[in-house]
Specification:
3 copies of one chain form a homotrimer. The first copy, chain A, has 6 helices and 40 strands. By secondary structure, chain A is an alpha/beta fold.
Chain lengths: ~350, ~350, ~350
């Protein structure tokens, strides 16, 4: 289904330079876009490539428009933040082209009589919904998902197939949870009695705000006594582990394979690179950015970028540097000896 | 449902200082506990806070009781290990408040005629149990779980929803497996023939002892020829990967995101911090403790705490230290040159 | 079911030294193999043990045969690559002993009327197959798996139970996907608008070649606009995360817990040790080998082995070396000062 450029700009704003009657069918990357596609320029390195693009329309900044318009032949949509505009335009096309949703509960779904399902919700095949769960308007629950006793889903929340959302977990509006994610698993709590581990029942829940995305096979444990908390706008990629009683501040984003140990309190507007790890009971300020592969072993009270990973090298070079790292104290001692000898 | 303090102490021991007729309904954290709650003090830093708690009863050590009793108004339960007592008291309340279990097989479960299901077991909706599987008394199998051919579950074992427990895997009594865990996936075994990888069938099973907990989305591979072995009392958190033919010794505990490569033999009473990694074919002694984020690249024959992660720093500082680490050999060389010059 | 050695060698090649009429039932490890078993010797350290093995037959190289034949009593199969021969022999026995497959769709599976299922395919209980999916000859789809709209599976592909294979994902012939894996989850793409994250719809698919193995709970994201690509013969272990728009070159193998960030292009015939991580938008040459626990933070243009992890030490020793690493600049400064003083 094609769209007039004029119609798109009416919906999303931006300044259209070119004919509003050009018809486009969706987004495409710079290098493969044809006359029926819109593409975008947000990386200065791709400016020359953009100038040669065959796309029907190009989303770009005013500054880039001045530089690219000499060679680029198609229409332009000029906007302050081309990447955000691209995101919204892509959402526009996905919504237009999505297959029709038919509200209702599939015949093979098993819904407890005390659960409340909004009339506009879609409950797919083999879904199980337990007692007292509450599924909001326009929710879309993918095949084979499990929703536990007393769970609550805000309006417009989407579960992909095979989500496990256990008892006493809540998520706000417009949430997205991807396949294989487990929300509300028991926190890892044991007391040690003469070597053996005694289970500590985990009786808190999980409280997730609005506009939260949770990736595939990510796990979020329920709290021990209080809740685990994920605030509004948090974005979690795949295979992330959030332990019991963590608080993840609003609009914080974490890339794949990040782990956060129990009771860590993470600020708002933070970012974590892939496989970053945070130890338990730490506190991290707002606007902290942790690089990939870095272990946060103490609280961070000041905004900024933090890093800690061993630099990669050819294996033979690493062998040498690692051998010295193991023995740095010896090196420091020898340096001190030299300093003593030379000073007098 | 409320409990008399006297009844609790009769079940769990400890010395009650205060009225046995005080009624409590469950556990709560120090800061939010009210007169209907029990709380506990096991961290000396929280002593002042405990003194001011409004909890109906406080579990604590004899030494702490002497220090706290001046300000704290409620009843006390004095015990040698307050954290263990808290764990057991919490278990007591969870058991009392749990919804009634109704033994039997849900109408939508698919059970092979040769599988044996104990009369007291609960098999939830959409569970699949294959030929020759054996499910012990009081087992509780969560919705949508899969139990393969010849699998065996000891009495009192609990599977949360969506567990995958494949053919020829055994688990002992009182086990707990959380959602999304996969037990008995094929080990990663390939022989290389001129660049291409030839699959090695994995024909061993998984043998898991009694009182083992396995976290959400954790994976344990079956052995190549022999079994992968998890001994009694082992506790595995979420998203742990145990490769084929590992042996994890009794009462060892691993935090989230730990990985253990093939054929590693890990001792008893070990602990592994989050995201620690163990290379293949290594041997680790009993009572070894590996810090979070540390890679074990050689066998460890002596008990103790081991660590190996790059310290976190502000990114600019890390850039400097990492540049020097890359080039430590140069630094050592310069130090040697100085030593030569000075010696004579 | 037992096999004559002569029959095995007719199928798989190799030089049989001993009677072709010896009957064997399967493979076993050196230390436990009995007269009914075949075992193999591919590690020189185990030569003495092989010499004493009670196995009915031993697969080994010509050189090892010369060294072992003095003590070893059973039949020998001499071959250039005993480990590859072992893999193929194990496959031979697994195939012979596998329970009979009965082609067809289980009564509880839900198959969309527009999906095409080959007559020789097996579709197990509770499987869901959506519109326009295409399942090739001799495919075997494990219980509870989900196959999305427009997905395609080449002939002979095997899904273990509980695989999630989402819309517009393709896999070639003879693929294997293990339980809990999620193929086609949305890539982690967001544009930042004044602190809040705007979702970028992920409209690409996943294209997986022939002879690809994917481990338990591994996740492969769909591309943002283009596809994510996994080439022929790639082997991925458990709990691997492949982000959107990656290209993994043919015959590359990755051990458990590896993560690859978005748009990384990885060459052919590479290997990645467990928990290795690759940052986004990097390019890695063919025949690159990355050690376990190493973070690849820049492109690698030259074949070879690369490493970067902090060496493990007793915690007290690590504390000292880490303190110096944090302050290496000071050490370099002091070295320079000494050099200045000594030079003149």
């Amino acid at each position: 289904m094609s769209t007039r450029l004029g119609q798109l700009v009416e919906s999303l704003g931006g300044q259209l330079i070119g004919s509003p009657d050009i018809l486009v069918t969706g987004m495409a990357p710079l290098e493969t876009a044809g006359p029926q596609h819109i593409t975008f320029l947000s990386n200065a390195k791709l400016r020359a490539q953009a100038g040669l693009s065959a796309a029907g329309a190009l989303i770009l900044s005013e500054a880039d428009h001045a530089l690219v318009s000499a060679t680029y032949q198609g229409a332009c949509i000029v906007t302050a933040n081309p990447y955000v505009y691209f995101a919204k335009a892509a959402q526009y096309f996905v919504k237009r082209n999505a297959p029709a949703r038919i509200a209702g509960v599939h015949a093979t779904a098993i819904v407890h009589p005390t659960a409340r399902i909004a009339a506009t919700a879609v409950i797919a095949a083999h879904v199980i919904i337990e007692a007292d769960a509450d599924i909001g308007e326009h929710c879309d629950i993918g095949a084979g998902s499990f929703i536990g006793r007393g769970a609550r889903l805000g309006a417009g929340t989407l579960f992909h197939p095979h989500v496990t959302f256990l008892a006493d977990c809540h998520i706000g509006e417009r949430g997205v949870i991807q396949s294989g994610a487990v929300i509300g698993s028991d926190g890892f709590g044991f007391a040690n009695e003469q070597g053996a581990w005694i289970r500590i029942p985990q009786t808190g829940g999980v409280r997730i705000g609005h506009d939260v995305d949770i990736g595939a096979n990510t796990t979020i444990d329920r709290g021990a006594l209080d809740h685990t908390v994920i605030e509004d706008g948090v974005k979690l990629d795949n295979q992330i582990q959030i332990a019991h009683n963590c608080v993840i501040g609003a609009h914080t984003a974490m890339a794949g394979c990040v782990g956060v140990a129990g009771s860590a309190k993470i600020g708002k507007y933070c970012t974590f690179g892939g496989a970053a790890m945070v130890l338990g009971h730490l506190s991290i300020a707002d606007h902290v950015h942790v690089s990939s592969g870095s272990l946060v072993s103490r609280s961070i009270h000041e905004a900024g970028q933090y890093t800690g990973f061993y630099p990669l090298a050819k294996n033979a070079d690493w062998e040498k540097s690692a051998a010295i790292v193991r023995n740095l104290e010896d090196m420091r001692h020898r340096l001190r000896e030299l300093e003593k000898k030379i000073k007098p």
